[in-house]
Each structure stands twice: as structure tokens, then as C-alpha cells.
Amino acid sequence: MATITSFPTDKLTPVIGISVDTTPELIAAVRRGLPFAVFTTLQKSLDVSSAVLAQLIGLPVRTLQRRRREGRFKPDESDNLVRIARVLSRTLGFFEDKAEALYWLKTPASALDDDTPLSLLDTEVGAQEVLRLLGQLEHGVFP
């Protein structure tokens, strides 16, 4: 059974590039649709191509181009961006070094059936599994 991991909303600000200090503010921003700049900021933070990030949020490249012109994502797409940002933020907090955090996200892990943590962020279940693994590592449990 998947569990929802709470996360301090204000920790997302550096990762997504917009200021959201409370959960209600984040909910409202997602419902409005996050601005396209969030995608660009997250892409740079993850050091991945726009095609990779688009795939993780479930967008064909042509739809991504349309969102760029529109300047805003749909609520479900925004929710997907927040999911990825939440995991990235928690990973950065654990490793405290961006290069190490990105290396970990992009390296296959035996505890994740040799998938990379990043590749699992296209679903909530996958994100929860990555967060579970990070929680184990935080507590010194090395699977």
C-alpha cells in the first residue's frame, strides 16, 4: 500500500522557482496551473533535457511546446511537476551536495530493481518508492 509522504512546502521554492510557503498556496498554484518557468527551473535543477522531463510528467514534446506558448501547465501536469520537485528537494536535503544527489538519482539502484530513481518519478507509486528508499538511507538502513 502506498503512503503519502508529507513534505514542508517551503522546501520546494528553490527547486521550482516560485514562492509557495504553505500547503494551501501550493494547492492553489497547482489548481491554477504552474507557470512554464517551473519546468525550466526544474529541468536545470535536475540537469536533464526537456524531453526527459516532459516524459516524466507525461507530456509529448508537441504538447510541451504548446504549454511553453501558453505559459502555463494544466493542473494534472502541475501536480506531476510538484511530485518530481518534492523528490528532488528531499534528495538534495539528504545528500547536501547537488552533484551527489543528481548522481544518485541517475544511477541504477538494486533496491529499485536496477531502475534509476529518476526514471521512477513518472508515477506517484514510483516516487513513493524512491522516498521510501531515501528514508531508509536517512536511518542508516542500506538495502
Largest sheet: none
Please provide the ordered H/E string of secondary-structure elements: HHHHHHHH
Q: Report the principal-axis shape.
A: globular
End-to-end Cα distance, whole Å, is: 19 Å
Tally of contiguous helical segments? 8
Mean pLDDT, to the nearest integer, reads 89
Low-confidence stretches: 1-5
Number of strands: 0
- Subunit organisation of the chains: single chain
Topology overview:
Blueprint: H1 13-16, H2 23-32, H3 36-46, H4 50-56, H5 61-70, H6 75-95, H7 98-105, H8 124-138
Helix pairs in contact: 2-6, 3-6, 6-7, 6-8
Describe this structure in words.
- Helix content is 60%, strand content 0%.
- It has one domain (9-138).
- The chain has 143 residues and is mainly α.
- The protein is globular, with a radius of gyration of 15 Å.
- The chain starts with 12 loop residues before the first helix and ends in a 5-residue tail after the last helix.
- The chain has eight helices and no strands.
